[in-house]
Amino acid sequence: ISLGVVHSHALSSSSPSSESLKKTFIDKCEAFIQNNKSSSANNCQKIWSAFQQAFVGRDPCNVPMEAYDPLIHTVIQDPVCNRMLFWSKTKKIVHDFTEKRDCFLTLEDTLVGFIMNGLTWCGKEESNETFTTGCPGWTDCVNNTVRSFWNRASAAFADAACGDVTAMLNGSIATPFSPTSIFATIEVKRFKAAKVKSLSVVLVTKENKGTTCDDPSLQDLQKEIEPKLKYNCKAVPESKIQDCISHPDTACGACW
Ligand code: AVW
After folding, report:
1. How far is it, in rounded angstroms, from Cα 189 to Cα 227?
2. Mind telling me the catalytic residues?
């Protein structure tokens, strides 16, 4: 089955320092479109304009997620039912996994997620400039330029969810369903039973240690989703996922 998605992680991961954010943005945007023909209706210049208006000339600690609405509405992105992969505290293993195979799609495999992954940016009051250094960190202020982007992009990704959705959570930490995570505060709240049939949690564990699917935080997750939405959870040893990463020919369905 062709998803019309080519994982483009390898194309560019360099971060700009003195080089302009615009060039990095347009280059990554065009590289993505080259490799994902299903997104060829997008215009990178138009997307850049919609993106930069969210934060240029604004206090970098006062950019609400709604500032990125024009960006989200400018991007043309096909929903990919049954293949959407959400994650929390599992960034590395999830992307090592999706990089090797086309059966799952994360936010970072979509156009805006791919472009902004690894980048830092912000504006300044009374300035037309775009900065890539000296920007507020993730927890320095609630409405910071970068965090609001990821909140808004995550909301759009979750709004597009349909069919069977998967979430890879970390079974090596005390609270795999962290109440302050983007997954808990934004994504789960947007799964609608009218479109989403089921939520399958893959709890990545270190060899029979750590949390299990009975964990209280996962019970909270189950309570949080609409009752019509089916829920299941499976603890999967990290080594099993690592095996699947090393053997990309293994069918995705055999990985957990
Ligand atoms: P995460 P989420 N300081 O692994 O559920 C700096 O907690 O929130 O998973 N950077 C941070 C901080 C922090 N305190 N907290 C989070 N981040 C950044 C989008 C950092 O880059 C996808 F669709 C970390 O790797 C997933 O389903 C990233 O946020 C979901 O949202 C994820 O934090 C993952 O977000």
Report:
1. 13
2. 81, 162
Residue 118 CA to ligand 1 center (angstroms) comes to 12
Report the predicted TM-score, pTM, of the whole model to 2 decimal places: 0.92
Residue with tokens 């490799």: 35
8 Å CB contact between 145 and 55 = yes
- 165-187 tens-digit pLDDT: 999 999 999 999 999 999 999 99
**What one-character-per-residue DSSP string does 227-255 give?**
TTSEEEEEEEEHHHHHHHHH-TTS-GGG-
Ligand 1 binding pocket mutation candidate from 110, 141, 150, 180 (most atoms within 8 A of CB)? 150
Residues with beta carbon inside 6 Å of ligand 1?
Answer: 86-89, 91, 107, 138-139, 154, 157, 181-183, 187
Amino acid at 149: F
ipTM of predicted complex: 0.95
Rounded-to-integer distance, Cα 140 and Cα 122, Å = 13
The tokens describing 142, both together, are 């609630």
Q: Are 98 and 114 in contact (CB under 8 A)?
A: no
Q: Give the span between the Cα atoms of 182 and 188, in whole angstroms.
A: 9
**79-88, pLDDT tens digit by residue?**
899 999 999 9
Please report how many Cα atoms fall inside a 13 Å half-sphere around the Cα of residue 115, on the Cβ side: 25
Give the model's pLDDT for residue 34.
96
- What confidence category does residue 250 fall into, taking pLDDT thresholds of 50, 70 and 90? confident
Q: How many helices (H) and strands (E) does the chain have?
A: 9, 4
Sign of CA dihedral 95, 101, 107, 108: positive
Q: Are 128 and 57 in contact (CB under 8 A)?
A: yes
151 alpha carbon to ligand 1 midpoint, in Å?
9
